[in-house]
Amino acid sequence: MAESGKDMTLIVTSKVYDRLVEEHGKRLSDIIRKENVTFMKLNDRSNAISPSMTITDVFTYIYFFNKDGVYDYKIIIGFEDVTRMWAKELYKYYKKQSVAVEE
């Protein structure tokens, strides 16, 4: 998606960020440097497990993890404006708890 030129924001936990750096450092750097990409790392002050979200102009897709951090097939898929509005509020919540990663 980063290659498409569409604006996107990625927010990951510190654990995921560290793994990306370790396993895909060069590729991650290339993505972070793109003008259309904002890459952020969640401040891990709490032990909360954040969901994975995709929010577009057309649909919202959110999936959740259980308390052990394992995907447990609880998902929200919506095409309505109200679903996207709710998801954007959830996104803003996580964005406020994150810091930008710069290259």
Please describe what this structure looks like.
This protein is of the alpha+beta class. The chain has one domain (2-100). Helices cover 34% and strands 31% of the residues. Strands 1-2-6 form a three-stranded mixed sheet. The longest helix has 19 residues, at 14-32.
Furnish the topology, listing elements before pairings:
Blueprint: E1 8-12, H1 14-32, E2 37-42, E3 52-55, E4 60-65, E5 71-78, H2 81-96, E6 98-100
Parallel strand pairs: 1-2
Antiparallel strand pairs: 2-6, 3-4, 4-5
Number of discrete helical segments? 2
Order of helices and strands: EHEEEEHE
Strand order of the largest sheet: 1-2-6
- Structural class based on helices, strands and sheet pairing: alpha+beta
- Can you give the helix content as a percent range? 25-40%
Shape: globular
Q: Please summarize the sheet with the most strands.
A: 3 strands, mixed
Gap between N and C termini? 19 Å
Low-confidence stretches: none
Total domain modules: 1
Proportion of residues in β-strands:
25-35%
